[in-house]
Amino acid sequence: MYRILFALALILHFPFEVCAQETSFYQDVAFINNISMGLPQGNIEQISIISNIPIATTSSGQYEWKNSKWILSNNNNSSKVLPQYKGIPQEAGKVLSTTNYRNITYVGCENGLFFKIGNNKWKQELPSDSNYSWALKEVAALTVDTKNRLWFGAKQGMGYLENGKWTLFTGKEGVPYNHFTCAAPGPKGEVWFGTEIGAFRVEENVFYYRANRRWLPDNHVNAIAVDTDGTAWIATKNGIAQIVSKEMTYPEKAAYFTKQVEERHNRMGFICQNQLTERFNINTSELAISDNDGQYTAMYGAAQAFRYAITKDLEARELANRSFYALKWLVDITHEPGFPARVIIPVDWHEPVNEQYSREYNSRHQKNDPFWKDIFPRFPLSEDGNYRWKCDTSSDELAGHYFYYGIYHDLIAETKEEKDAVKQVVADVTDHLIKHGFKLVDYDGKPTRWGSFDPDYFNSIWGWDQRGLNAMMMLSFLNVASHVTGDPKYDEVAEMLREKENYDIYAMHAKEFFPPENAVPWDNNLGLMSLYGLINYEKNPERQIMYRIALENAWLHISKQKNAFWDGLYGAMAGFFTQKVDEGFFKPQELFTENPLFAKASIDRYYKSSLDNRYMTETLQRIPLDLIGYDMDNTHRLDIQLDPTPGQATDMGWGNDTFALPIDERGHVRLDRDAFVLHDNEGNGYAEHEGTFYLLPYYLATYHKLIEP
């Protein structure tokens, strides 16, 4: 019930009118039809379209779709029963499917595909093309599309016959699964196939897999029917999925997600995910807290800042300002200037937050995690007694804060009050780090678990693997501070770290990618968000070249993740470098004089970005409008390759094109996750995620002219 109400609200909210100057695309939305919509509980045996009205057949009768409800029908249309055919060879086995193509009857059998050649005479069809030649088995799907092509689905794969020529597909060509149950044509040449684990649509030889609870009430598909609008009605063992493809534009999708964030993900100006007290029901959402309210609020603020820079929309400016002052509040509320809290909640928050992190809990937790910090209370009381703030702040928080501080300063801060506020908070946080020897120091006088940016930590057994990332982040923080405040002391501190402690050398390898446990995906967020400030505000041409090399090194390890945010950050920063080359910023003969050829060779090599924005646009267009976290399992798919890396988890892999699966087929929608995880679960239906993960990459990419809006 609730997912269809969600989808209906979407359709009503947008007229889906497409402006000629805007890019349009088709957005799939799933409506789940079950007992709440009038259907009987359980198996839907058959679905058909009669006079463009869907008719569902169940063991308790037939139901027809009227006024967005299923009602018991007086129709007595019998459920689909395959005709009896004479003359089919006995060895063909049971008839599983049938269709008529060019006035010829075709039947799919357990042991072959056959077509009628005369009175009770049949001939076996043996499809072949340049890659395959098949004697088919288990031909459970047959249909003819509107382009007059015959399609089949069988154990070997699937294919179509056009003008006497076969084109065949296996998992290598994109077939997700091959235990077929049915097939149905759509009005524009697309074809839907049902299987025992999900359904998929084929358009222009591209496959769109629709499985798991995001798309279907049950993975076992019994039948599919497609109406004249192209809506697919998919009958399963536990209800019906109605999958609609609606034409929309990027700005329409952005407006939808801004509304979603404001209605269900705004807690006192902080952006957060929510929890659903009833599974899959967004009407039961409750705002949650996390470790990273600061980072997620910064990302939303940055999205709105880019939006304002593009559109001059005053709503965007207001939201960007609100996000900045929420981040500033995180800094102002704590025990000393410059220490940012993770979270702020009212003192009467409904969860017993400190009781969850008792001394006993900390002691038990340290047995499995020796680096867990034993600090109590984890949520100290604010000075005015009205709020609690969460301590043990990490590098994640700092990356978000500084990323947004620079963007806010450049794109939003216009009044003296706004400019003074951002200068003050940047100076406070940076001075805290410098004062404490490049550490975040908590109210207990000790560093936070993930807040060490100092040389001693980098040279220890505990911090060696973090030194590239954290050294680069510290230099980025100092670059942002220098740019925002104009105070030269931050340049002097950065110079000391470079000359005495080699921070710029460490920064050239800002991320560890092996062993697998060191390749955590959220570090890519930290790295790229920090590189954005580092490269954007770097004034020295030699260091610009060094950081451009660091950017490419990071990018090569994540370029196939189909992550629109990472793609956008890389494209923007590569664009900074290209622009500086074009402006004559670099004088190769004057740079790296100990090796006169290095600068020119590097400039030539890295002048051109290696971004292919097709994958960024694919992800932006296919981020689902439904951001509930579902359990999504792709480990059974035929169109994947498992990751062979030693020590890697067994559920890691990618598509046959070596890129990650499309985002609407994966188990996560957040763009700080590993897209190569094949079985993922973000809340298992009890959480909805925030639309920032569309808004930020969209507005970032548009601002930097990486996509056509």
UniProtKB/TrEMBL annotation:
Keyword Signal: yes
Signal peptide: 1-20
Domain of life: Bacteria
Any coiled-coil regions, as ranges: none
Organism: Arenibacter troitsensis
Protein name as catalogued: Two component regulator propeller
Pfam short name (any one): Reg_prop
Keywords: Signal
Keyword Flavoprotein annotated: no
